Amino acid sequence: MRINGFLRDVQGAARVTEARRELIANASPENLYHDHIRELAQELHPAATRVQVTRVEDVSPTARRLTFEPVDGDVLPPFQAGQYVSLDLRVVRTLTSRPYSISSAPFEARAGERSMFQITVRDGKKGENFVANWLYGLVKPGDRFVAHLPFGEFFYEPLRDAQHVVALAGGSGITPFISMAREIAHGTLDCDLTILYGSVSPDDIICKDELDQLARSCSRLRVVHVISGEVDELPANCQRGLLSADLIMLYSQGMPADGNTSYFVCGPLPMYRYVLGELASLGVPERRIRTEVFGSPRDPRQNDDYSGPASMETYKLTVRRGIDEQVILARSTEPIAVALERAAIPNRTRCRSGACGYCRCKLISGEVYVPELGDGRRLADKEHGYLHACSSWPLSDCVVEVPIV
Ligand SMILES: Cc1cc2nc3c(=O)[nH]c(=O)nc-3n(C[C@H](O)[C@H](O)[C@H](O)COP(=O)(O)OP(=O)(O)OC[C@H]3O[C@@H](n4cnc5c(N)ncnc54)[C@H](O)[C@@H]3O)c2cc1C
Ligand code: FES
User: Fold this and answer.
1) Best mutation site among 154, 293, 334, 349 for ligand 2, i.e. most ligand atoms within 8 A of its Cβ?
2) In sequence order, what E strands does 208-273 have?
3) How confident is the model at residue 234 (pLDDT cuts 50, 70, 90)?
4) Architecture field, domain 302-401
5) What superfamily in CATH does domain 43-151 come from?
6) Domain 164-293: which topology?
7) Using a 6 Å cutoff on CB, does residue 120 contact ligand 1?
8) pLDDT by residue (tens digit) across 138-196?
């Protein structure tokens, strides 16, 4: 700073004060201040978007597509093909949330007044699900939801991924690839996509007509249906078998180990484990594999590394929130996030598979099981006793500190 001399500086400061007074006196009563960074951040990542179901369509004998449009002046934020939305849900008396990959394309969310997004929900097996049957069977046009989007890292990034992507999808794991395929066909996603889509029977294939039509209309897309169950006659462009190393090799660009192809894996846990083994046997470099698992294991006892009791036990879970302390019951077969929901204790969840960290809380005492595949915690969090409630199963009575949301 330049020093001009004591008196000149003091006089100068007095002039500034006078000029400021004048500015304030003539200022508009309206707040003209714009925090552009904050406004952009809110536009890109709104806390929540109010949406309404406008259409429900069957896309296979066991899957339905739900179309949502924003309401009450809300605007859909931009997202990448492959990301997911987390829907807040009230099922009977439980407040919960579930993640669903967005199966429509990003360009459709930017379509002005016709802005929308879609999810595709598979009907759950009776007795094994809580939300899927309800979303599949009972949701109708006009129903309103609060949606949080976009989430997830499962999208094509040219700086990281090869130009040619082989999608390895199982069951409802096809949904993020429908979004990518639509975006590629529209010319707004620059990559080549070969989809190897595994289903048990031809009837289980979700959006078959749309996928085949997209592949016919765009030379950058290819779709192969792979059927693992017994069938008398295979429909056109279907192959028999599993998403095996041989099949992956056949549709890769060059040798998989050379890194000319990226592999995007999405589907239920058993398929996911099998496919990762096949990719490892082909020597695919890790940087060329991207994964999305559709949820945490239904029953932790099915995991090889599970160290808990063989029968279902019930433990005491002491939950601290600020100065409040509550003792609830938690089953050994359900994640702590579900125990909190059953007891109506608010706890935010988004991915429900251990990845995003929204349900992070602190384990004060007790023991929990965290599966290797669902452990998305940072190293520092692991060391300091934090856990992701959606991916932690109690192995003893526990005390946890849950943030107030
Ligand atoms: C990133 C991502 C994307 C996904 N995309 C799709 C998709 O595109 N399409 C699709 O179909 N699925 C998708 N899924 C899976 C989806 O989120 C759900 O897991 C699936 O619909 C099954 O839901 P569910 O509640 O029926 O079963 P689960 O999610 O397995 O939930 C059952 C849980 O609810 C608990 N529960 C049972 N009763 C109660 C009660 N009274 N109170 C509280 N809890 C209870 C059970 O203990 C159990 O833990 C995706 C998952 C992820 C992680
Ligand atoms: S909800 Fe994402 S880690 Fe638990």
Assistant:
1) 349
2) 221-227, 238-240, 261-267
3) confident
4) Roll (3.10)
5) Translation factors (2.40.30.10)
6) Rossmann fold (3.40.50)
7) yes
8) 999 999 999 998 999 999 999 999 999 999 999 999 999 999 999 999 999 999 999 99
Return the best residue to mutate from 353, 382, 386, 387 for the ligand 2 pocket (most ligand atoms within 8 A of CB).
353
Strand arrangement of the beta sheet that strand 314-321 belongs to? 324-331, 314-321, 398-401, 360-365, 386-388
On whether the CB atoms of residues 171 and 63 are closer than 8 A, the answer is no
At 314, the amino acid letter reads T
Distance CA 344, CA 294 (A): 24
pLDDT over 80 (residue 79): yes
Between CA 79 and CA 45 the distance in angstroms is 10
- The domain locations on the chain are 43-151, 164-293, 302-401
> Over the Cα atoms of the chain, what is R_g?
26
- The residue type found at 222 is R
Rounded to the nearest angstrom, the distance between the alpha carbon of 133 and the centre of ligand 1 is: 10
Across-strand partners of 199? 227
Pocket mutation for ligand 2, best pick of 85, 293, 352 (most atoms within 8 Å of C-beta): 352
- Name the β-bridge partners of 363: 400
Rounded distance, CA 338 to CA 359, Å? Answer: 11
Ligand nearest to the CA of 292: 1
Share of the chain above pLDDT 90, in %: 77
Q: What number is the average pLDDT over the span 208-224?
A: 97
Tokens encoding 155: 């999208």
- Confidence label for 359 from pLDDT (cuts 50, 70 and 90): very high
Cα angle: 344, vertex 385, 149; to 5 degrees:
55
The residue whose two tokens read 């004591």 is 6
Q: State mean pLDDT over 298-325.
A: 93
Looking at the CA of 344, which ligand is closest? 1
Ligand 2 contact via 352 beta carbon (within 6 Å):
yes
Give residue 295's region: left, alpha or beta (phi > 0; psi -120 to 50). left
pTM above 0.85, yes or no: yes
- The tally of CA atoms less than 13 A away on the side-chain side of residue 41 is 5
- 371 prior amide bond cis, ω within 30: no
Rounded Cα distance between 150 and 77, Å, is 7
> Tell me: the pLDDT tens digits for 2-16?
666 777 777 777 777
